[in-house]
Amino acid sequence: MLKFWKKKPADQGAGETEEVTTQAPAEAEQAPEPEASLVEALAPVEPAADATSAKRSWRERLSGSGFARGLSSLFSRHPKLDDSLLDELETTLITADVGIEASTALVENLRKRMHKREFADANALLQALRQELVALLKPVQKPLSIDGHKPFVVLTVGINGVGKTTTIGKLARRWRDEKRQVLLAAGDTFRAAAVEQLKTWGERNQVPVISQGQDADAASVIFDALQAARSRNADVLIADTAGRLHTQSGLMDELGKIARVLKKLDQEAPHEVLMVIDGTTGQNAVSQVRQFRQIVGVTGLVVTKLDGTAKGGVVFALAREFGLPIRFVGLGETATDLRVFDADAYVDGLLPADFTRA
Predict the structure, then answer these.
(1) Structure confidence at residue 141 (pLDDT)
(2) Where are the beta strands (DSSP E) in 173-304?
(3) Which segments within 209-281 are labelled E, that is strand?
């Protein structure tokens, strides 16, 4: 029998609790037994971000990034339309990890159009570049809808340090603000700090967190969390997983186990495998996605830390290489800085509007 505590509504008296019991399936190997009591973390909601932070545009967030500064500087230094401008543009794109093939193809296409005198001036070239970059990203601009299943199960994956647990907290805040009932599963049992970090996000956002002790079986924790989400009629379950190196096959196999165990309760779960990527890692992110896709079937991406990196071009490389939907991007520290990906807004933040503003 599994036990966890649910805080009663405030009108039932401070400190009162309600015990809830769920029944685990008999087959231990296919659906692992829990190793400890489940705990819910509840606490006051995190204060809302200030109005100034919430209203900051994509351009304000991205214009200070190394990638944006490089492009702006390029067009400021080369207002004349010539081959040297395009040569340096290619170097800038490659340096920002757009990728050699994508950068070369993009620049050569612009060069052909320039030689055909399709551009009246460098500003016209700038607008053409904008259109080319947006065209690369439009196919992966696919917002995540969580309305198809209840509970909608989101399994988050990614290596250490990419901002995975923080992203989970921000997603919980977003969906809670949409009046959805959210439950979190502390499936990163390898690090005690990860469990505590997720509980902190739960406390800030008044979102329950299902957890067990350190080194508990991650599949068991997430299985129990799905049982809890079903019993409470929750709208969405977001499950954390260990920040594992993609080269460690044993740890990667655990992800496959989690997915198999979830299907004991819901054949279609997880409904979204969301991989969180650190935008500062550049081309390393490409190899990470390739490995994770083979193991657990990544269905969407979150790219974090794009507001201060010179490697923001990796978004284009990921789009060209995999065509996976980019669900969200991280443009800052607050909950409101996790934005639904918008190709036009992203490119607008990277490029000057024209040379007079570069």
Answers:
(1) 98
(2) 182-185, 209-210, 236-239, 272-278, 300-304
(3) 209-210, 236-239, 272-278
- Cβ proximity of 275 and 326 under 8 Å: no
The whole-number pLDDT of residue 18 equals: 30
* Mean of all residue pLDDT scores within the chain: 82
Question: Would you tell me how many other CB atoms lie within 10 Å of the CB of residue 18?
Answer: 10
Instruction: Give the chain's largest Cα–Cα span.
Output: 77
pLDDT confidence of residue 248:
67
Distance (Å, rounded) from C-alpha 213 to C-alpha 220?
Answer: 11
For residues 115 and 148, the answer to whether their CB atoms sit within 8 Å is no
Question: Measured at the alpha carbon of residue 261, what is the angle toward residues 255 and 262, in degrees to the nearest 5?
Answer: 95
Distances in Å between the Cα of 7 and the Cα atoms of 4, 39, 85, 221 are: 10, 11, 63, 20
Q: Convert the pLDDT of each residue in 198-226 to its tens digit.
A: 999 999 999 999 999 778 999 999 999 99
**Nearest-angstrom CA–CA distance, 106 and 314:** 15
Residues 157, 276 contacting (CB under 8 angstroms): yes
Q: Where do we find the tokens 């193809």?
A: 105
Indicate the pTM of the whole model.
0.82
φ and ψ of 282, to 5 deg: 60, -135
